[in-house]
Design brief:
The chain has seven helices and seven strands; from the N terminus they run ββααβββββααααα. By secondary structure, it is an alpha+beta fold. The radius of gyration is 22 Å and the shape is elongated. The C terminus is likely disordered.
Length: 177
């Protein structure tokens, strides 16, 4: 274990991609430019003095593994982690990395077109299923392409109360009509 680096706190590269809202390519560019060390966890052990988990890692390389032909592959982030102290220092020195993108919906429109699944929207809003249902019942949530027809149907069936079923996408409303 002499050749392994001991780390007290680590964060996975996939969590960093979500936290910083960057692509795998962009994360790799940041790692290369700012020489952020990457690690692979070999094993975890409990330190007997205080009961804290210590991660024994190989690493200190500054680029993700790239799989596939140039331009057609993907950077491999699984099983790669950062030292949390390094990430916190980088975020302190570059706070703009945590800023929200100006147009986050562009990615969704490219992927799904106009019919974005409700569950994707719910996750984008960081809501639990019941929170999303409450938002939709309040009339303040995202508008679905089936919304007008659903509201007419809702008025006929439930004139005294709100009802918005949890479905994975707006097309699922078709069986209600």
């Amino acid at each position: 274990m002499d050749d392994l680096t001991q780390l007290l706190r680590v964060i996975s590269a996939t969590e960093i991609v979500k936290k910083w809202n960057v692509t795998n390519d962009r994360l790799n560019a940041i790692v290369e430019k700012f020489r952020l060390p990457l690690y692979h966890i070999c094993e975890k052990r409990v330190r007997p003095d205080d009961g804290k988990i210590i991660y024994f890692c190989t690493g200190s390389y500054f680029k993700f593994y790239y799989e596939g032909d140039y331009g057609y592959g993907e950077y491999i982030l699984e099983d790669v982690c950062f030292n949390t102290d390094t990430v916190e220092l980088f975020e302190f020195e570059h706070p703009e990395i945590l800023w929200s993108p100006a147009y986050p919906d562009d990615d969704l429109e490219k992927k799904y077109g106009e019919n974005i699944p409700a569950d994707v929207i719910r996750r984008r809003l960081n809501m639990s299923p019941i929170q999303f249902i409450d938002l939709m019942n309040s009339g303040q949530g995202p508008v679905c392409s089936w919304e007008e027809g659903f509201r007419e149907h809702q008025q006929k069936l439930y004139p005294d109360g709100d009802f918005f079923p949890l479905v994975s996408n707006c097309k699922s409303f078709a069986h209600y009509f």
